[in-house]
Specification:
Layout (H helix, E strand, L loop, with lengths): L6 H10 L13 H4 L6 E4 L7 H9 L5 E4 L7 H11 L5 E5 H9 L20 H11 L2 E5 L3 E4 L4 E4 L12 H15 L4 H20 L5 H14 L2 H7 L2 E3 L2
Parallel strand pairs: 1-2, 2-3, 3-4
Antiparallel strand pairs: 4-5, 5-6, 6-7
Helix pairs in contact: 1-7, 1-9, 5-6, 7-8, 8-9
Bound molecules: adenosine-5'-diphosphate, 4-methyl-5-hydroxyethylthiazole phosphate and magnesium ion.
């Protein structure tokens, strides 16, 4: 269940990576469909009163699930929805630095709020991410120039990617969708799944950037690169480290 802006790029990124996405948000379909998924992805970017009950039901269906709290501080309604969903709890929540900071503070009143974009660097909010992971019992992933992934104790950094990825709308949504696919593939280790998905998506961005002329062609080449990745390219290209 993802926002209307991200549906296309998220479905294409997932399909290129070898997953099999299906998007639906009708409350009457959730009980039949969700138990048959390997993983559920919920993204509040275009939240509505109609969709929230579907999100609740999908998150409660007993499948591993991943939350993208897009613009969590946009409104009181959205913040309360995110906090309610977080309590269900997801295997992973992935947001940009401002979103993770707002969730950790449970606050929708940041003076630096910039909508769906971040006004903080990922490294600035690492302590907030660890605190959020501990209080909610979930893996927290903060994206940015360096992605940090934590369960509240261990912290993994993933340093792949190119700055131009921020100029394509819904790359964050797409990488959270990929995290859900990786969690579906190995629900036993959400920390590793999230770190691998972020590193591999960033690596596809780096490879895509070799042929791109700007954000629109990067979008295309990133998806092509995801499709073309092989084990050798991944193992030699990912920059993942367990922080001391
Ligand atoms: N400055 C950067 N350098 C390299 N990769 C980046 C940079 N900023 C974001 N990314 C990558 O872009 C993707 C989206 O992250 P981000 O822009 O933080 O999310 P959002 O779109 O939700 O704000 C992630 O894979 C992240 O690693
Ligand atoms: C522009 C916009 N508006 C509502 S959702 C959305 C997409 C946000 O995507 P991302 O968080 O990946 O930048
Ligand atoms: Mg986002």
């Amino acid at each position: 269940i993802t926002n209307l802006v991200s549906m296309d790029i998220a479905a294409n990124a997932l399909t290129a990576a070898g997953a099999s996405p299906a998007m639906l948000h009708c409350i009457r379909e959730i009980p039949d469909f969700t138990p048959r998924c390997h993983a559920v992805y919920i993204n509040v970017g275009t939240l509505s009163e109609d969709w929230l009950p579907s999100m609740r039901a999908a998150a409660s269906a007993g499948r591993p699930w991943v939350l993208d709290p897009v613009a969590a501080a946009a409104s009181q309604f959205r913040m309360e929805a995110c906090l309610e969903l977080l309590a269900l709890p997801p295997a992973v929540v992935r947001g940009n630095a401002s979103e993770i900071l707002a969730l950790a503070a449970r606050s929708d009143s940041s003076p630096t709020f910039k909508g769906v974009d971040s006004s903080h660097d990922s490294g600035e909010v690492l302590q907030a991410a660890k605190a959020l992971a501990r209080s909610s019992g979930t893996v927290v992933a903060v994206s940015g120039a360096v992605d940090f992934i934590t369960d509240g104790e261990q912290v993994i950094s993933a340093s792949n990617g190119v700055a131009m990825m921020q100029k394509i709308t819904a790359t964050g949504c797409a990488v959270t969708a990929l995290i859900a696919a990786f969690v579906g593939a190995d629900p036993s280790d959400a920390l590793a799944a999230a770190a691998c998905a972020l590193a591999i998506f960033g690596l596809a961005g780096e490879i895509g950037m070799e042929s791109a002329k700007g954000p629109a062609s990067l979008r295309m080449h990133l998806i092509d690169a995801l499709y073309g990745l092989d084990e050798q390219t991944v193992t030699s290209g990912v920059k993942i480290a367990l922080l001391p």
